[in-house]
Amino acid sequence: MIRATRILRAHAIGWGEIVDRIVLDHGDRHRRRVAMRGVGGLPFLLDLIEPAVLEDGDALVLEDGRLVWVEAAPERLLEIRAPDPLALKRLIWHIGNRHIPAEIAEDAVFIAEDHVLAEMVRGLGGTAEPVERPFRPEGGAYAGGHEHGHGHHHGSHAHHAHD
């Protein structure tokens, strides 16, 4: 089975033949070594040196130089909004206090669909509407940044204990 041993980040793509694509949800985009099959049927082994986050628009580089395109699958999320920026910051603080993955946009926050958190948000004056879209949560303070094609990059996720 051919191996994919490197990730070509979205902002660096411009060379190589794209021969297939994989569509993965947020959880399945955190990988190091796993057998995969592209949408077009190409079997390959993802075999990275260390765990990595595969981002929408990245490509996996096969041993022969061909590429497999990475696409983020749509997921059921909550789109959280608030009446003003300060209220949104407060909601972000409450969501962050629960240590769940969150994608922070200019005027909204996206989290995995959760009826308990939806009620909390509504109780704090925000809105929480179900949507279906790719999920691109923040990497976290200990993850080494983020990679969405705008200059920073993901590392592996680490956790720390609270006293």
List its salient traits.
single chain; 163 residues; mainly beta; HSP40/DNAj peptide-binding domain; Alpha-Beta Plaits; 4-stranded antiparallel β-sheet; disordered C terminus; Urease accessory protein UreE
Description:
The chain is mainly beta and 163 residues long. It folds into 2 domains: 3-72, Urease metallochaperone UreE, N-terminal domain (HSP40/DNAj peptide-binding domain); 74-134, 2-Layer Sandwich (Alpha-Beta Plaits), CATH 3.30.70.790. 13% of the residues lie in helices and 39% in strands. The chain contains 2 helices and 10 strands, in the order E-E-E-E-E-E-E-H-E-E-H-E. The protein has helices spanning 85-96, 115-123, and strands at residues 3-8, 18-24, 30-37, 43-53, 59-62, 67-72, 74-81, 103-104, 109-112, 127-134. It has a 6-stranded mixed sheet with strand order 2-6-5-1-4-3, with no helix packed on it. The protein has a 4-stranded antiparallel sheet with strand order 8-9-7-10. Strand 8 and strand 9 (109-112) form a beta hairpin. The longest helix is centred in the middle third of the chain and has 12 residues, at 85-96. It is elongated and about 55 Å long. The termini are far apart. The model is unreliable at 144-163 (pLDDT under 50). InterPro entries: UreE, UreE_C_dom, UreE_N, UreE_N_sf. It is found in: Cytoplasm. Its main location: cytoplasm.
